[in-house]
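Batch manifest line 133
LIGAND: protoporphyrin IX containing FE
JOB: complex structure
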Amino acid sequence: MTKINTLYETIGGQPTIDTIVDSLYKHIGANETLLPIFPDDLEESARKQRLFLTQFFGGPPIYSKERGRPMLPVRHQPFEITPARRDAWLGCMQTALTEAGIEGALFKDIMSRLAVPAFRMVNTEETPTKENE
Ligand code: HEM
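JOB STATUS: finished
ARTIFACT:
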């Protein structure tokens, strides 16, 4: 029987996830729209994201083992996530995937899978205040 690879395996496993997350947080850390809601030290944020994306892409369920059910909209509730911040986050992810050498159909597949939770995370409809723009 043919084994169907997970997305995790297809992109190259843990080393690729690590590259994507490093790049994602480098771009988040330089993004004026996103910075106001992130902690100063992004190390721990990146670590949790590494656990999550590993599991989300079909790798070992290491996020749930440590943190329980993801319930991401609930975990994002304390932070004002506007449509502008959603788009900024997706933009950082897009750059991170490109920098990790992911392109074509795989790129499109991953972006559309991530857009689903990203759209669910929006919890604030107001436009960001001037200082956050
Ligand atoms: C829509 C735009 C998004 C914004 C502005 C955003 C922002 C944040 C912020 C401020 C935190 C808390 C600080 C931290 O611990 O990192 C966080 C945590 C997290 N985010 Fe997002 N996020 C977004 C979308 C997403 C998406 C689409 C995913 C998953 C595909 C995701 C996964 C996570 C995870 C796993 C955590 C850690 C949760 C935990 O405490 O275990 N985020 N995010």
